[in-house]
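I had to read the description of the data format several times before I understood it. For illustration, here is how one protein appears when written out as sequence plus structure tokens:
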Amino acid sequence: MDKDIRMPLSTEWSTEQIVDVVNFFEAVDKAYNKGVGRNEFLTLYTDFKKVVPSKAEEKQHFKDYEEQTGQSPYKAVKKAREDQGSEFVSI
């Protein structure tokens, strides 16, 4: 992952919550670059949703991340959900 990316984070989150969000975005990056385990990816997304339960807030964070990286977290999640027979998510 590029070191110049500003992760879409909130100052209201705990350290553990920040780690969960960063781990999810790192999994998105892996899905775009070399692939990531589907179950691992979906678990990280579930952890992300515990921190960001609001769909509107999720969309904003996804948009911020995509504008910086060109990688769509939405497409990665959609692919992971749709490819139930696959063990990996790769875009």
